[in-house]
Write a structure and sequence with these properties.
mainly beta; globular; four-stranded antiparallel sheet; five-stranded mixed β-barrel
């Protein structure tokens, strides 16, 4: 049977923290994704990953595993939530473009310096978003965006940082 468990899992040390610090959204296409032992070692394609800097304690990724024993299926529904502080025409215009895309590939780095990529097979879409001015002086003036995916595998983990993993015509534009 090909799905036999292959190792035990020990209890990890308490040295991890939550949250995301950066998202990179691809304007373009991936043509090659190379993996070794579940880690992405190289990606290639055409286009640019645009960096979206995220304020501390505002962004997160979660992934629900959906299994149907009756249908013999399993898929992973990813959800990335990011907050962009301070409303502006430039951000509004980029959000309009993001909302129209059907096949986004998004890389994101967590606060443990691990980079993931979601939407590798079926793409991510912006499923919802809000723009809010806030009421009180301490409220958010900005945008909250939610991106979702339904993939045959969980989000990919990059072996090296994104800049060291990309090739074949892909670039990164920093904020």
């Amino acid at each position: 049977m090909a799905c036999n468990i292959t190792s035990a899992l020990p209890l990890d040390c308490m040295d991890s923290i939550g949250g995301l610090k950066t998202a990179y959204i691809l304007a373009g296409n991936l043509s090659t994704v190379s993996q070794t032992a579940g880690e992405i070692t190289a990606i290639a394609g055409t286009g640019t990953f645009y960096q979206f800097e995220l304020a501390k304690d505002t962004a997160f990724y979660s992934e629900a595993i959906t299994v149907s024993n009756v249908n013999g299926t399993v898929f992973y529904q990813g959800e990335l939530t990011i907050v962009l502080q301070k409303m502006s025409a430039e951000k509004r215009n980029q959000i309009l473009l993001l909302a129209q895309n059907r096949d986004l590939v998004i890389a994101f780095e967590d606060n443990n310096n691990t980079t993931y990529i979601a939407g590798l097979t079926r793409g991510m879409v912006m499923s919802s978003g809000t723009a809010a001015t806030g009421t009180a002086v301490g409220d958010l003036n900005g945008y909250t965006l939610v991106f979702q995916s339904q993939e045959p595998q969980s989000a990919g983990i990059l072996l090296d940082p994104l800049a060291d993993t990309i090739g074949g015509g892909l670039t990164i534009t920093l904020a």
